[in-house]
């Protein structure tokens, strides 16, 4: 699945409500990057954003509420899936997008902070799940297109293909703490594509 290419709150001009939301989400991401989820406080976000504490508490309610809205915004800012005309190019574009996001000094740290938060905070876990589900569903479309072109077997589960592309990259990022490199991304694409072509991602009900 691909990732957003911008910080939250840096686009979307609008009225005062939009500007307040943008400032608060930008401050939330700043705090996550610098301090992590467990030191994220409503008061500090309000001060950093230049917004009254009452407004922040009333609208977002808790640090988990801030993280949920931040993840929604990052999902909204994410680019649509690639359309290179072939499944190999599309999957490579997905892997490179994930690679670039995870190695980004701001986005990569943001994801690590929210992933860490999700292990012990249920609202943060739900926000993380919703974010990745949206991105998986978006990129699963490239697999459906490949099936329609005859590049992959009928019944191939697009969501599982996209998960398989990203899984080795995230494992290195948050479990083994190894570098996430272009070589790792390319290997993930090659292995996933070989498995998909062999029918490894065809759902049980679609076989035969």
TrEMBL record:
DNA-binding region: 41-60
Keywords assigned by UniProt, alphabetized: DNA-binding, Transcription, Transcription regulation
HTH tetR-type domain residues: 18-78
Alphabetized Pfam families for the sequence: TetR_C_11 (PF16859), TetR_N (PF00440)
PANTHER family xref list: HTH-TYPE TRANSCRIPTIONAL REGULATOR RUTR, TETR-FAMILY TRANSCRIPTIONAL REGULATOR
Protein name from the UniProt record: TetR-like C-terminal domain-containing protein
Organism: Nonomuraea antimicrobica
Lineage, uppermost ranks: Bacteria, Bacillati, Actinomycetota, Actinomycetes, Streptosporangiales
């Amino acid at each position: 699945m691909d990732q957003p290419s911008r910080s939250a709150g840096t686009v979307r001009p609008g009225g005062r409500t939009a500007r307040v939301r943008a400032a608060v989400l930008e401050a939330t991401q700043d705090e996550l990057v610098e301090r992590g989820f467990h030191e994220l406080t409503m008061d500090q976000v309000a001060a950093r954003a230049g917004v009254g504490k009452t407004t922040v508490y009333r609208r977002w309610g808790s640090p988990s509420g801030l993280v949920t809205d931040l993840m929604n915004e990052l999902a909204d800012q994410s680019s649509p899936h690639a359309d290179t005309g072939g499944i190999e190019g599309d999957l490579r574009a997905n892997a490179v997008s994930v690679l670039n996001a995870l190695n980004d000094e701001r986005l990569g740290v943001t994801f690590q902070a929210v992933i860490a938060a999700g292990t012990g905070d249920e609202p943060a876990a739900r926000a993380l799940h919703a974010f990745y589900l949206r991105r998986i569903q978006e990129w699963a479309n490239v697999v459906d297109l490949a099936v329609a072109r005859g590049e992959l077997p009928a019944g191939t589960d697009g969501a599982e293909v996209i998960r398989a592309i990203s899984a080795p990259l995230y494992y290195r990022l948050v479990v083994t703490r190894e570098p996430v490199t272009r070589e790792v991304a390319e290997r993930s694409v090659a292995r996933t594509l070989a498995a998909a072509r062999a029918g490894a991602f065809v759902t049980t009900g679609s076989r035969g």
